[in-house]
């Protein structure tokens, strides 16, 4: 659901970009788009890396199911992406770059969903532990009161 909306949003933005470029078919503008897309891609890649490394570092304490675990191999492969040198001619529309950025947005959304689930799981765990401590405290107080009354 969330990934579909990201996908639709990206496709809408790609269409707007194409329409804009048709109006102003200027190679310097296209080069600037490419640079901005690459900058966005790098920033998103770093955010995703941070989220995934947070998830990998704390996965042993998670209540999440194994199906939600992120593959470390897939994570490492994501950083072997194409460089800007592989771009087609500067006057070509940056459609491929937008597709790559869209894929990275989807990957980031998945990583974010896993981290959000992990935080919710930890909140549940904390609530359960707090409740358990309160029960133990009540039992302890009751036992102490009983022992004192016997003396």
Give a verbal description of the structure:
This protein is mainly alpha-helical. It has one domain (1-60, 92-150). It has 4 helices and no strands. Helix 1 (2-23) packs antiparallel against helix 4 and helix 2 (27-58) runs parallel beside helix 4 (95-150). Residues 64-70 and 78-88 have low confidence and may be disordered.
List keywords for this structure.
single chain; 0% strand; mainly alpha; 151 residues; 4 helices
List the helices and strands and how they pair.
Elements: H1 2-23, H2 27-58, H3 72-77, H4 95-150
**Which regions contain 5 or more consecutive residues with pLDDT less than 50?**
64-70, 78-88
Spatial separation of the terminal alpha carbons: 65 Å
* Count of strand segments: 0
Assembly of the depicted chains: single chain
Largest sheet report: none
Mean of all residue-level pLDDT scores: 76
Question: How many helix segments?
Answer: 4
The topology string of helices and strands comes to: HHHH
Radius of gyration: 25 Å
Which of globular, elongated, flat, extended, rod-shaped describes the shape? rod-shaped
């Amino acid at each position: 659901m969330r990934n579909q909306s990201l996908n639709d949003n990206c496709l809408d933005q790609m269409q707007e970009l194409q329409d804009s470029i048709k109006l102003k078919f200027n190679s310097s503008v296209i080069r600037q788009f490419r640079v901005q897309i690459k900058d966005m891609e790098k920033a998103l890649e770093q955010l995703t890396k941070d989220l995934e490394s947070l998830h990998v570092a704390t996965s042993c304490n998670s209540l999440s199911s194994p199906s939600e675990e992120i593959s470390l191999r897939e994570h490492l492969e994501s950083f072997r992406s194409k460089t800007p040198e592989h771009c087609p001619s500067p006057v070509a529309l940056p459609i491929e770059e937008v597709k790559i950025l869209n894929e990275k947005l989807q990957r980031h959304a998945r990583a974010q969903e896993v981290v959000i689930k992990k935080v919710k799981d930890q909140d549940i765990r904390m609530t359960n532990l707090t409740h358990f401590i309160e029960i133990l405290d009540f039992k302890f107080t009751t036992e102490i009161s009983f022992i004192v009354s016997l003396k």
